[in-house]
Task: structure prediction
Amino acid sequence: MRAAAAIALAALLAGCAHYEIVGYYASWKDPIAFDARDVTMVNYAFIDFAFEQQTPALERLATIKREHPQLKVMASVGGWTGSGPFSNMASTAASRAAFIDAALRFLRRTGFDGIDLDWEYPTEIGVPCDPGVTCERPEDKRNFVVLVQEMRAALGDRYLLTIAAGADEKFASGQWIAELSRSLDWINLMTYDYHGSLGKTSGLNAPIDRDPRDSTGASARESVERLIASGVPREKITLGVPFYGKEWAGCEPGPAGDGLYQRCGRYVAEFDFTALDGKQGFTQRWNEPGRVPYLVKPATGGFITYDDVGSIRDKGRLVKELGLRGAMFWELGADRNGVLRRALASELPH
Result:
């Protein structure tokens, strides 16, 4: 009853709430033009404090921030390919202190509003490290908690501190994540990549609710509810939204003839939402449990999972329904025409 009452109260208050809309800015892409009114925060991904040079993208963000002082700009550290050093850095008091000192120097020099830590993932690194290099430890989660506690103390109330967290049960559940959240302003929960490049079975990238046909049983709602059940406050969670699609080829049609949750010949690639217009010969379908679209091409066994304006709006409604802090999306450059981010912004007062 308590959970139901909390959700009901959150829904009642949603009409007058102010939501965060966090957009990641991929540093390796060409400078991106965007309307600063569509977001409340930009996370520049990814920063290496060892390098001092200003890139065109950083300079552009500085200009946008001057023109829109209400916009917050964060330095995101790590990422899928850049998380290798985290385990060593977090393992000793001296190395943590050096990292925090470098972060503070960066913030004071650039005028950024805070730090976003994207460790993928404590105790189980995503990209294997070089031979002889340690990049994961059994004590990573405990060390992460200590790191953010020390960062919070150093950053005080002047700067923001957030993390990007995997939606998998291994990383977004348990006492450790609740303890971690106490030192954070919020957690950007990566509620996507439930199916993808690691397998040859087609599936939905980011379903809102569980599809009984899906053997993984994964969904954005279940990931959020698991985080809440672990003790993370609703107001410290932003719902991750993907602005990209994934494609498989040679998929078996399956009983429904749509190639969904079927063995495929190969995983093709991940692609930006903006590139969707180049996908010819596909037919759109809709998955009602997941409340997301997908595309099929029976002649070749092609299958594409993605989000469109309708599913993005539904995810904005889920944010309000669950009483969350807001939404986060990856990433600005994948939606260069602003179609998806305007849909999200129209759904969430900010």
Notes: The chain has nine helices and 13 strands. The chain has one domain: 2-242+308-347. Residues 11-15 have pLDDT under 50 and may be disordered.
